[in-house]
Amino acid sequence: MFGNLFYGKLSLKETFWKFGVMGVLLCAVVTKIFKMFLMQKLNGVSVSYYYTHYFSPLHMDNMILFLTIGYFVCLLALCLYSLIVLFGVWRSSAEYDKSIWLRHIARLMILLVIYCGLKISL
């Protein structure tokens, strides 16, 4: 499925709306949820500051460690998924023959969707 998406073998409508808009925003929301729980548990301290100043392997809080790993795994998944979707929409729009305007609008809008998804999660 991701192979068909990456190589642009799916329709532009399906690639853009289903995988692009809905998929990227869903990944961004899940990442944001992990970040909110992590920030609540850290009491406003940044993750890097916590691990450089407060973290001790002997007295670690397992929930903070779990939330940190979950946040960074979701962030990595969002970045990789966004790249797959970007290539998929780009290649799928190259095969779109109905309108040259929709081809370029889809390319610009997927860049905007990915930017908003990363902005939401960071």
Characteristic terms for this protein:
122 residues; mainly alpha; 5 helices; 81% helix; elongated
Write up what this structure looks like.
The chain has 122 residues and is mainly alpha-helical. The protein has one domain (2-121). It has 5 helices and no strands. It has helices spanning 2-6, 12-42, 47-54, 62-94, 100-121. Helix 2 (12-42) runs antiparallel to helix 4. The longest helix is centred in the middle third of the chain and has 33 residues, at 62-94. The radius of gyration is 18 Å and the shape is elongated. The two termini are 28 Å apart.
- Radius of gyration in whole Å, from Cα? 18 Å
Beta-strand content: under 5%
Q: Which spans of ≥5 residues are poorly predicted at pLDDT below 50?
A: none
Strand element count: 0
Quickly give the structural class.
mainly alpha
- For the record, the count of structural domains works out to 1
Taken from the alpha-carbon principal axes, the silhouette is elongated
Biggest sheet layout: none
Mean model confidence by pLDDT: 94
Share of helical residues = over 70%
Distance between the termini: 28 Å
- Provide the succession of SSEs: HHHHH
Q: Total number of helical segments? A: 5
